Amino acid sequence: MTQVLVIGYVWPEPNSSAAGSHMMSLLRFFRAQNWQVEFASPAQQTEHMADLSQEQITCTPIALNCSSFDDYIAQLKPDIVMFDRFMMEEQFGWRVDKFAPDALKILDTEDLQCLRNARHAAHRTQQDFTLNSLLDSELAKREIAAILRCDLSLIISDFEHQLLTTQFGVSADLLHHLPFMVDLSALDNTVPDFQTRKHFMTIGNFRHAPNWDAVLYLQQIWPMIRKQLPDAELHIYGSYPPPKATALHNPKTGFLIKGWAKDALSVMAQSKVCLAPLRFGAGIKGKLLEAMITQTPCVTTEIGAEGMHGDLPWHGAISNCPQTFAAEAVALYQGEARYQQAQQNGLALLQARYDKRPLESQLKQKITNLLTNLGPHRRANFTGSMLRHHTLRSTQYMSQWIEAKNANKMR
Predict the structure, then answer these.
(1) Among the listed residues 117, 227, 119, 183, the one whose alpha carbon sits nearest the alpha carbon of residue 357
(2) Helices 336-353 and 286-293: crossing angle, nearest 10°?
């Protein structure tokens, strides 16, 4: 039986973040192939983490920079190792190369961390984001190196796939575009209608910088909406709300911090319009996919919609201007015909881009081909082979130094 080891940056929280939901879909995909799956992570366990035992997935806590992992992976003998974000490949990739050299190495990027970081820096300094700032980024060098060291990287956004091939020169053979996978057969089409729904909403983990910035931006936008719709409320959901977020709760203005939502799809379906004024970030946005699934039209920015709709119409409106953003939100909230057209656009997007069946079939074929032809695939990636050669030594010595330093502290 094929043995899969997934090394997680965090324990998956599907109700807290899009990354957690995407990770669960990948774990379920592996189990659907009747593969044995083990999830290991150096992170602390959390109150909102998924119960992986219900998915017949083994959970294993591991330590960073510790040689105990060497014995663990040598005994496990995985056929496939998947790293959750490039930082895990940096920490454990060289150990996998040394003690499980025949394992297929997959990197689940979630989104390009270097792109998100560069956009955040540009926003913080009130400068325009440019590709030059990305190409000069140390984080980009680290992340692209990790991609090249792996046999396959899963790229959630077609925009990022193109960025990697055109700007960074990464071979398309090392990449696989894999957006969120939605089981369309399980969709509930009996969602509340235009007349039944009320209020605006947004949702997102407060620890995620783009989400917190969007809440602050909504403080500028909401008064313009509220002026035209004085009875409307904005419900803001998200896990781990800090005191600075709960301090914004203001029933008089209808700006309501609701905190963690146990069922994100349920609160989305009850709302009339989703607002997602994201000013930086990367990847594709789980809240916007949930809006499509629940047929809740959404107003977002170009960053928010990036990589999500291709040439197809958006399920709502896209604007980077706060005044226009507010006007579009009001127009959707009040106009039934436009509202219903936005709902149809969202359903068309789900069919065209997020259907689980073809996406899983394509992923299975890609992985199966690589397992069968891993030797030739690696020989064609000389740059990756060269990086693995040097990283095995430099990272090995660094990790051994950290391990020895930590051991001395405990004496």
Answers:
(1) 183
(2) 110
| CB 94 within 8 Å of CB 123 | no
pLDDT digit string, tens, across residues 49-93: 989 999 999 999 998 778 899 999 999 999 999 999 999 999 999
Could you tell me which of 311, 312, 328, 352 has the C-alpha nearest to residue 275?
328
pTM value is 0.91
How many Cβ atoms sit within 10 Å of the Cβ of residue 265?
16
Helix count (H) and strand count (E) of the chain? Answer: 17, 13
Closest CA to 176 of 393, 398, 361, 400: 361
Q: Is the dihedral of CA 65, 68, 69, 70 positive or negative?
A: positive
- Beta strands at 316-318 and 298-300: parallel, antiparallel or unpaired: parallel
Q: Which amino acid is at 27?
A: L
The phi and psi torsions of 108 (rounded to 5 degrees) equal -95, 105
- pLDDT tens, position by position, 2-25: 999 999 999 998 877 788 889 999
